[in-house]
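quick one if you have a minute, typing this from the bus. below you get a single protein, a line of residues and a line of whole numbers that encode the local backbone shape. could you go over both lines and see whether the tokens make sense for that sequence. anything you notice is useful, everything is just below.
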Amino acid sequence: MPKHFVDMGREITRKCGGLPLAVKSIASLLRHETDEEVWREILESGLWEIKESKEEIFPALQISYAHLPAHLKPCFLFCSTYPKDYELEKMDLIRSWIAHGYIESRRNREITEIGVEYYNELKERSFLDDAGVDPEEDYSKLHDIIHDLARLNSENEHYSVEINQPLDIQEKTVSREVYHLYVGGSMGLGYVNRIPQENMKGLRTIIIDMGKYLGTWEKYFDPNLELMVDCQDSSKGVTLCDLTKFEVLRVLIMEWDSLTKIPHSISELKHLTYLSISSTHLKMLPLSIGLLYNLVDLQVDCNSLEYLPDNIGDLANLQFLCIDSGDNLKEIPKSLCSLTNLLELTIDSQFVDYVPHGLVNFPSITKVQACWKVRTIGWLKDMKDLKGMLCFQNLNYINNLEDAKRANLRNKCKLESLQLFWDYKDVFASTMDSQLKLKLVPEACEGGIVGTDDVHFSLLECLQPHPNLMKLLVSGYPSTIVPGWMRDPLLLQSIEELRLRSCGYIQSLPFGNLHTLQYLVIHQCSSIRTIQLEQLPSQLEYLQIWLCEHLELITGFGHLDMLNTLSIGRCNTLKSLTMDGLQLVESTEVFGDLSHEIPQINRQSISSLTWLSITSCGSLHLLPDWLIPSGPCDVLVRGCGCPDYRKSKKGF
């Protein structure tokens, strides 16, 4: 870096006053900036003299905010709708940003992907911090000072309040300047009911977060508050307040365990774009919800939900629909097929009993997360943009190959994972999370379809995926032959993970040298007697072989340069492991005493291994010396024909 940049950086750091958050904020702003004028503008900014806060850190933060790209500013300010120390879930934020039009659409880009970019950029610029929970769940927080910064720049448009006693209802007021309101606490409903209507007319967002508050506060209420609540009589439940006074509301979020009914007045929210409802007691949505013609996003998390309104198909602009109902929802209304603009559909109920015809009307859909019982799969044909994972169960019930062809898996170039179960009686549950899980049921109840090798071969051939597929699981395949696409590296050119389970008729590994393969699992393939690892790519990192009861020989370990995990278990007839195609000299009792009985020839080893497990292989009496990695490794040998052995990376 040129010296004058270094000098300016030191001077900017001095102006930060040694405050870590200030330095972090300015550094996040400048780390990709190569324009000298921008550096000089920040150094000489009048904002260093800001007097609006007693916090010394504020000038540096205000400069960072001033240089925040215009498209990120409203997204950042919206975060301050929530109270300090609130854990913000990534997709909840993005859905609200979309509803308010904060995210700029781009050609050939999904709007949620753009929202994720915005979210990540705010984190990179240190405006959002990790919340300290599971990083995979993607929660974030605003630092208290960052929260103050957002409130300072939002000009009173964002407001949050906690209401836990009657005095709070009287003392905490919402001004007409507030556009985005968060209400939490056990008495939040009473507070919302008492806000004057003239102060509600400008509200764009209402978040009612009463969580699990119920049954403990009825005695505190003044009857004059006109609350629609009876906490002592759970059969009467809790209903919402009148919604007609929210004339321009765009976002309504209700997290409220004791909510039992939504008033029909919700149909008056003509501008509502995003509706989120979370309750453990709500059993149905009102028919009036079908009048929310501008609704784009509907999220319902209600474990007791039993029915969807028949007119849900009238929501012509709906793009995102998520129904999480536990296992109570058994049927999908036919009108759902009218939602032709749907991009994402989630119905989280374990195997809905009835799926209507007409699902072919979703040509734009990219994500479906559901468990459905179906009789055909041909309706998948036009879902060419389907992403994520697709799982078929009970494929033995398919006897119409033309229907399987119509599913047209070859054109689904965005599909990442495919699971093919013939009977799903596999003792191993799938560990790859399924987004769309389809359980085939027979046309009649006469039982499963009994087919020949040719029938099952032809079916698997019809289910050929696009070459972009990254993960494939085949379970219960009842044939000795496999189609050519499984043997052709060009047709599986992106595959990274392969699992074969309960394929008892396959006699050898059915695929060629798949150059991208990193993860291989072989379970309960009882007809395989020899596994030749030479046909696998050298960059394979994970290999698991279990319950192959007739397996006798595994050759070619020396070919696997990057193998770090090897697990072999319950292969009772396995007798030999070799480095190359021809068996090399092996030693006995290598794991009994490492100080002797190791031949001095062939000291080559699998140096990349970090985990080695060989268990319950009773016929394996000889273990090669090269199997012990020279570097740190966890080793477990137990229940084999040789002595047990255990080694830890830590040396014990």
In short: The first helix runs from residue 3 to 15. The two ends are 48 Å apart (CA to CA).
